[in-house]
TrEMBL record:
Protein name according to UniProt: Carbohydrate ABC transporter ATP-binding protein (CUT1 family)
Alphabetical list of CDD domains matching this protein: ABC_MalK_N (cd03301)
Coiled-coil spans in chain: none
Membrane-traversing stretches: none
This protein's UniProt keywords: ATP-binding, Nucleotide-binding, Transport
Lineage per the UniProt record: Bacteria, Pseudomonadati, Pseudomonadota, Alphaproteobacteria, Rhodobacterales
Amino acid sequence: MADLRLTGVKKDYGGHSVIKGVDLEIRDGEFVVFVGPSGCGKSTLLRMIAGLEEISDGTLDIGGKRANDLSPRDRGIAMVFQSYALYPHLTVAENMGFGLSLRKTPRAEATARVARAAEILQITHLLDRKPSQLSGGQRQRVAIGRAIVREPSVFLFDEPLSNLDAALRMDMRMEIARLHRDLGATMIYVTHDQVEAMTLADRIVVLNGGIVQQVGRPIDLFRDPCNAFVAGFIGSPRMNFLPVTVDSLSGGMAQVSAAGVGPVAVAAGRITMPGPAILSIRPQALKPDQAADRSPLHGHVVLLERMGTETVVNLRLHSGQSVLAVVPGDLELQPGQDITFSFAPADVRLFPASDLPDQPGTPH
Ligand SMILES: Nc1ncnc2c1ncn2[C@@H]1O[C@H](COP(=O)(O)OP(=O)(O)OP(=O)(O)O)[C@@H](O)[C@H]1O
């Protein structure tokens, strides 16, 4: 069993708090991805699970046993680093088997495990080469192979694909997904990459400033972010945030208005009082037409980013606010043209203005 439980886990560096009390359960066999802005504590949390950083406060249980004071090698965990961390003077086979020889695994068994991992990763033909004779993608396979041979119950990945080019990242992403399916091991993965997080994760943990903002299935975070931070962090292109005024509240609905928006009735969410608020609208939820049951936004096209099947439209509303919309790639649009987009009230979310204190038009 390799379920993990973090209870009130904290990390301080010399009185500076970087992880501020994390409670999290990770189920056996689950693929969990940590995301968040640079410096939010993703790697620190991962390294505490690995045993590479001491836990300042709180409890880490692995497989139902307290692991705070276990050495890294006794945790049943293997970690794959962004930098690959291969020994240049050893062959691929020796790199992969290095941890096993340290643990005095019988030679025949070590050789068999290396051969099996090489087969899984399709690098059998590279076993006699040195790291300098490998491409970046091949080196990353060796680093993953070195983790596999240890037969850990938990794999930790710290941005393993960030040194690879886009095409290779996609191949390796699929490879890691297949590995998870085949091995059935618990995997915890840190990334900056939205696509990796959305496609690999059973659940995503969004961190900000050492605090867990939300934990959930990718689709749930995308559709129902709990606050404006998560709404802005998950999804690409980035969420639009419009400052609005809540004029009245009734039966869980808020009547909102703003220059160039509404009035429109939307779900009140966490809003309990009339006053300033933020309306969030995904670029994909804006349609370049105006239907009776949709709410209009009037503006003009500033910039078009043609991606092929779709185009990202950067428009400026009459209120001066910039907004992004995603439209089909074959839609004829020109910079400078006046345009009306519209949204369905069910597709937007309302958040307190205090969620985004630097939002123009909202109080500080
Ligand atoms: N050894 C250390 N001593 C002091 N502060 C540290 C140490 N290691 C990390 N920090 C601080 O802890 C915070 C979290 O760092 P961490 O590397 O976990 O962030 P991250 O979310 O993984 O960032 P990135 O995405 O940039 O890798 C940062 O403010 C960092 O400066």
